[in-house]
Amino acid sequence: MAATTEKKVVPVTEKSIDPASQQMLEKARQEGISTMFDRADVMKPCPIGREGMCCKHCFMGPCRMVGKDKEEMVGICGATAATIAARGVARYVAAGTAAHSDHGRDLAFTLRAVAKGEAQGFKIKDVKKLVQVARIMGINVDGRKTEEIALDVADEAIANFGRQTGELTYVRRAPKKRQALWKKYGITPRGVDREVVELMHRTGMGVDQDPDSILTSALKTSLTDGWGGAMLATDISDILFGTPAPVKANVNLGVLKADEVNIIVHGHEPTLSMMIVAAAEAPEIVEHAKSKGAKGINLAGICCTANEILVRQGISSAGNFLNQELAIISGSVEAMIVDVQCVAEALATTVKKFHTKLITTSPKAKITGATHIEYDEHRAMDIAKEIVKLAIDNYPNRKEYAIPQFKTDVIVGFSHEYIKYMQGGTYRGSFRPLNDAIMDGRIMGVVGMVGCNNPRLCQDKYNVDLVKKFISHDILVVTTGCAAVAFGKTGYLTPEMMDAAGPGLKEVCEAIGIPPVLHMGSCVDNSRILTVLTEMAEEGGLSDDIGGMPGVGICAEWMHEKALAIGVYFAASGVPVIFGGDSIVEGSTKVQKIMRDTWFERFKGSLEFLPDPEQIFSRTIELITNARKALKLKDYESGKFAKEKVLLDMAARREIEKKQREEALAGA
Ligand code: CUV
Ligand code: SF4
């Protein structure tokens, strides 16, 4: 009977909590277009690989550990389940580190070209940041030209990749205690390339075969991401394109426009997209768009290319990872321009049903069926204009389209510099107010919520469920990447959302005028969170190291290997980290214990996997409570605190008002 063979279709409401996504997914299904959402139901994950129990590091295998006794099993070479699971994690970390670091390396070369006057259309936008970075690097700045300093900074940055001995430059930025701990356990990183290559070597057939040793090496390599490639990417992007400060923008598919040429930039790098922003504003280009019957050019982003231009220029974001196919399915996108990372190959098939042009631009990332227009920083502006023109010329080809009418207001762009500034201004900016608020229990702790969408989980649901609970428990949330966009779509990135926060957090948000959830940028900008934690440690009153802070890192809907590299470098830096979804080391309790318990004993940072948001929440509260206890901070008890606080607030406010009146009278 036909009915039994028909696959049960999962309702769109179980696929995403985002009404725009639901609407586009409905459209896709009606038009018979396949998406990641639906393919996730058809393509069941390999259960062996999913729990870290498949090894394919040599051709005697692949060897699979299955069944009840898998932890007692060995591969043909004798590799244990624990070794296999640890090697799996390590290779994820190597690949993730490579991705962020290659991105950072390209930016360093761009800075070099700019310093030498060879990069068309680029200039150094934030000289103050350049000087600040140069000082950290130990580069002389006195009486020197901007370009000279920039060239030295670029060369020092580039040296971090190929460095064979010594230390990564930014190791010195970490709290002293952290540096000592890294030394003690032998994980002070050398150069990025060296650590990635070594980790690939170690995890090959017949090399490092002690799970603890393999995982220690993964910690070391991940540090070249957080304190290397990613941190350099953040700093150099700030130097070239400006350090973010709060800016208003819109988020979600509703940012696409009916009567304008819609161009989407997608991927991770800011360089070409920044140039496209400029190209789309050039008078002759705008004129050209009008000559084709469009009212103008509308630029929007997806994934972290979006975050880069969102936090710096207020360019709208059309959404996060799972929105990429949906934007095209709206039928309203003239061109989608992609660079590197998180670009689904499926786009090449999806665009065939529409007029959309898919344009690849990185020499590292080509997709069969896409138009390749290669980016070259020496001719960046010319290339940007060529691409925008191509999109404009495609506007008359637009047929039927349906733009979901959902978009939200957001305030984004909380760089660590701005977070410091907002707590006291240019001269008195410090982390004192934040530390004080944590010490006296107005803020219970800080949680970093980062990472992707994953079609195996209902889009945005896990992140949003958690953020709601955190802020109502007076936990300040800092966020990046696709998680940040999820919070944007649901309204959490507006100051008005302070009403959903607990009384203590609300008071702090009110005093400074900030949302309870701070969008700090793209995935490489997770390095900003490391800087914030370091400054909090140096400010005093809490822990004198990143380790021991009442803070937790959460990656609830992750999918990319980069996310795992981030999780591991946070652990190595002293932050307990929780990942959502299934555990990639489910098959080995030994490896789970090393990553959760042994790492915590050594580094006060850890990585664990919890599938259920409820569990993630209660574990987070437990970790923060334990940290507060160890620091002997005032008890935080939600509820009791809330009541006390309200009374106190009323009395305190009356007291302040009385004082103000008296002062005013005295002055008059
Ligand atoms: Ni990296 S967060 S899907 S784009 S890595 Fe890509 Fe930023 Fe995840 Fe999102
Ligand atoms: Fe099997 Fe060992 Fe080869 Fe892995 S390295 S595939 S466990 S023989």
Structural write-up:
The chain is α/β, with parallel strands linked by helices. The protein is built from 27 helices and 16 strands. The chain has a six-stranded parallel β-sheet. Strand 5, helix 13 (303-313) and strand 6 (317-319) form a beta-alpha-beta unit. Helix 5 packs antiparallel against helix 7 and helix 9 (192-202) runs antiparallel to helix 10. Mean pLDDT is 94; it is low at 1-5 and 639-648. Bound molecules: Fe(4)-Ni(1)-S(4) cluster, oxidized and iron/sulfur cluster (SF4). The site of iron/sulfur cluster has 13 residues, from loops.
Spans where pLDDT lies below 50 across 5 or more residues: 1-5, 639-648
Give Rg in angstroms. Answer: 25 Å
Estimated helix fraction: 40-55%
- The secondary structure category is alpha/beta
The best one-word shape is globular
Gap from first CA to last CA: 91 Å
Write down how many β-strands occur, each being a DSSP E stretch of 2 or more residues. Answer: 16
Distinct ligand kinds: Fe(4)-Ni(1)-S(4) cluster, oxidized, iron/sulfur cluster
Number of helical runs? 27
Strand content: 5-15%
Reading side by side through the largest sheet, how are the strands ordered? 6-5-4-7-8-9
The biggest sheet, with number of strands, parallel, antiparallel or mixed sense and barrel status, is: 6 strands, parallel
Mean pLDDT: 94
